[in-house]
Amino acid sequence: MTNNSVQKYALEFTDNEIEGCMIEKDQFYESLNDMATDFPAISKLSEPMRHIDEQIKRIIQVSIKSGIDAFEGRNNSFETLGYDMMIDADMNVWLLEINRSPDLTHSTHVTKKFVNNYFKDLVGLFNESGWQNVHKINQDSYGCLKKLIV
Predict the structure, then answer these.
(1) Average pLDDT for residues 131-145, to the nearest whole number?
(2) d(CA 89, CA 103)
């Protein structure tokens, strides 16, 4: 699994050139061109970043729509979901798992930045001036969730 809580126990974890075996999305997209020689599927795509983003969006939409009836709504509360995904050599995105209680610790430099931004966005979403943004969840579930999880 690519989950940091699991992979940190791998023998190669500290030897990896990528700190914590985790990079930010923007860094990954910047490195796609460098990886094209090792992964021919990248060269075949006119917009590899868009190709990946569309798959992520679709996975999130389908998973939320398929599981929405299983969530028990409670007044004055919200749910945070953590999506673990993997991208294969053909640039297909695969859903590994969805966490109902994702790890929000600063375990790597990437998670530290992500978690800090997540909480800033969360507060902004629910403060008085941002309350109208909550309605975006029903209109465009990925658009609102993307602000919180990407």
Answers:
(1) 45
(2) 27
